[in-house]
Q: What sequence folds into this?
């Protein structure tokens, strides 16, 4: 198989799987990761893939933001590890707001092992999964439904929370840049996340490595604004340009 054929194979595999790692390709073809990197650069220049640390994910140039159904199939093992670690940070019997996002969903799935928790969510994904769990205190939070976020957002959501205070909130991110800025595509999504954060005693941020080195229009804060940050990105401490962002609140799984 020549270089062009290999690149077409990579493009097709990424389209089917959603993402692929450099290690997988190197093992499949018996080539070095440097060679894989050159293939990735070529495919990136053609707009076929989007690179992340250690691999690549499928990119559709006509799509600015992928639907929640697509995001659910990406980095599943990584999100599960993040979810397990995040659940360890949350005490039994706590009140927890679970925001939208597929990584947050994995946190929610792990929290079903906790005793006496009080869970609030504006995520349709989280509601669908936790509603099947017996003896669980689950509260559905209203708002304007946004399909790409898979949840309920906006002023109605904020009004619902006005008289509430949560022990924890779990927030997902779509982008984290080298200055530690956390951002999203949607203004309504960012507005709602900031409202949830303002009503929470402890804030937990969760994201996988594909969100690194991205930057979108609507910010929700910086890494140092969160009490705990959990990610699978092993080089995160070297990534930030500002030393303030590489503090002890970051956990790598």
A:
């Amino acid at each position: 198989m020549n270089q062009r054929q290999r690149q077409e194979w990579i493009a097709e595999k990424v389209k089917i799987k959603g993402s692929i790692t450099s290690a997988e390709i190197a093992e499949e073809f018996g080539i070095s990761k440097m060679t894989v990197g050159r293939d990735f650069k070529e495919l990136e220049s053609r707009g076929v893939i989007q690179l992340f640390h250690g691999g690549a994910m499928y990119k559709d140039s006509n799509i600015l933001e992928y639907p929640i159904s697509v995001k659910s199939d990406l980095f599943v093992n990584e999100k599960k590890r993040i979810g397990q670690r995040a659940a360890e940070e949350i005490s039994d019997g706590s009140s927890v707001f679970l925001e939208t996002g597929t990584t947050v969903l994995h946190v929610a799935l792990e929290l079903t092992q906790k005793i006496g928790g009080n869970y609030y969510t504006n995520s349709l994904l989280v509601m669908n999964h936790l509603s099947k769990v017996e003896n669980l205190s689950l509260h559905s939070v209203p708002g304007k439904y946004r399909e790409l976020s898979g949840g309920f957002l906006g002023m109605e959501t904020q009004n619902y929370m006005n008289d509430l205070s949560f022990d924890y909130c779990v927030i997902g991110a779509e982008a984290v840049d080298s200055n530690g800025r956390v951002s999203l595509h949607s203004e309504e999504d960012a507005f709602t996340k900031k409202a949830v954060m303002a009503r929470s005693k402890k804030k937990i941020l969760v994201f996988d490595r594909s969100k690194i080195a991205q930057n979108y229009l609507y910010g929700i804060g910086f890494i140092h604004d969160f009490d705990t940050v959990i990610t699978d990105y092993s080089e995160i401490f070297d990534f930030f340009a500002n030393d303030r962002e590489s503090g002890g609140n970051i956990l790598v799984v």
DSSP finds ten helices and 15 strands in the chain.
